[in-house]
Specification:
This protein is mainly beta and 376 residues long. It has helices at 272-278, 356-375, and strands spanning 6-7, 14-16, 23-28, 31-36, 45-50, 56-61, 68-72, 76-80, 88-89, 99-105, 112-117, 122-125, 133-134, 157-163, 171-176, 179-183, 191-193, 206-212, 215-223, 226-230, 238-241, 249-256, 259-268, 284-288, 296-298, 310-318, 321-328, 333-336, 344-347. The strands form 7 sheets. The chain has a 5-stranded mixed beta sheet, with no helix packed on it. The protein has a 4-stranded mixed beta sheet with strand order 1-3-4-5, with no helix packed on it.
């Protein structure tokens, strides 16, 4: 039984186990931290720290071959074949060194792997990461001259790759910021899906796509302007939750394993540009029991309003239950074993779990607030 669960900003974030989790690999701004504990433990222990000095953007477990992959800011892709104890580079054919996101299609034991990079490329491996091929069609999409990320170096990146559970040829690629792309032929051609409406402030700021278990044509999308829903594979969209909801800047979105009308999302109460002034993300977790029409803050007092942003979350299910891990820019990890009703802070003072720009936005904001208070 493979029990590895991974937590990172842009990695694989849904895992199914035979029992509640007792270990998690956390991608941080200073390597991969392994935490171990029991679901009832208030504090878990750091038992391993690897890839020291590297900013890890994404971590995933390949369920078909057992490898663990870590995408690293500016340093490429690393692979571990011993549960995260030792690592080697996995760069044959991977020409872009900033690996931002990782994904896996494990249907029928095939184990097709994908990575997204900055600048925006998608690479695929069919041999467990021994070699990679560039899906060059992504770079022929019209309008790429308009793709632009607000923070320096203003370079768009592939934030997330989602694979249709019915058909591995159907890919959704979220480019931050610039486009939501779809391919129905395994990456030979991509088309842009337009989900904006009059209330959107950003230029197609797509974060990730999630499929409804009851009907994979029904998809949910998070982005800088809230949560969107499409009933028809991206042809038409409904703007479910705008920036005025409690989570104004959502990233992860989850559908409950036992009820497709129950949704969860994590994120900041304000967008990152505000953090540069306030130094406070006011982040939390919210739930909808009606398919996204209304939302409520959950998680207990500890999750009511976190100053660090919840940059990463992972949903873990097991027979009879499910729960969540969440990681913040303040170097905290939280765990819920009761479907998100309550959380415990199982680790703190570990390296930040963050996209570099988000951590730096909060640091700049806190410095500005402190300076203003000293000058008052």
């Amino acid at each position: 039984m493979n029990t590895h669960v991974c937590l990172s900003p842009n990695g694989v974030d849904i895992y199914r186990l035979d029992a509640p989790p007792r270990a998690v690999l956390v991608g941080t701004m200073d390597g991969v931290i392994e935490l171990r504990g029991a679901p009832t433990d208030p504090q878990w222990s750091v038992v391993n720290h690897t890839l020291d000095g590297l900013h890890v953007s994404s971590v995933m477990r390949d369920p078909t071959r057992g490898g663990i992959f870590a995408g690293v800011h500016g340093e490429g892709l690393y692979r571990s074949l011993d549960g995260g104890n030792t690592w080697e580079t996995s760069m044959r054919g991977l020409s872009v060194p900033h690996v931002f996101s990782v994904a896996c299609d494990a249907r029928d034991g095939a184990g097709t792997l994908y990575v997204g990079t900055e600048p925006a490329h998608v690479f695929r491996s069919k041999d467990g990461g021994d070699s990679w091929e560039d899906l060059e069609a992504l770079r022929r999409v019209d309008g790429q001259d308009k793709w632009w990320f607000p923070a320096p170096p203003h370079m768009p990146h592939v934030k997330n790759i989602s694979i249709d559970p019915r058909d591995g040829r159907v890919l959704y690629v979220a480019v931050e910021q610039g486009a939501l792309l779809k391919s129905v032929d395994g990456g030979n051609r991509f088309e842009q899906l337009f989900f904006e409406d009059a209330g959107c402030r950003y230029n197609n700021d797509a974060h990730r796509v999630v499929f409804s278990p009851r009907n994979p044509d029904e998809i949910y999308l998070t982005g800088g302007d809230g949560v969107f829903k499409s009933p028809d594979g991206g042809k038409t969209w409904q703007h479910l939750a705008t920036p005025t909801m409690r989570v104004a800047y959502p990233d992860q979105v989850y559908i409950a394993p036992d009820d497709t009308s129950t949704l969860f999302t994590f994120g900041g109460g304000t967008p990152p540009n505000i953090w540069r002034a306030t130094g406070n993300a006011t982040s939390t977790v919210v739930r909808s029991r009606d398919g996204g029409a209304t939302w409520e803050q959950i998680g207990g007092a500890i999750m009511a309003s976190l100053p660090g942003n919840l940059e990463a979350a992972t949903m873990v299910s097991w027979p009879g239950g499910y729960g969540f891990f969440a990681g913040s820019t303040d170097g905290e990890v939280f765990f819920s074993a009761d479907r998100g009703e309550t959380f415990s802070r199982i680790a703190q003072d570990i390296p930040p779990v963050s996209k570099c720009v988000h951590y730096s936005n909060l640091a700049k904001g806190r410095a500005a607030v402190a300076a203003a208070q000293q000058g008052a």
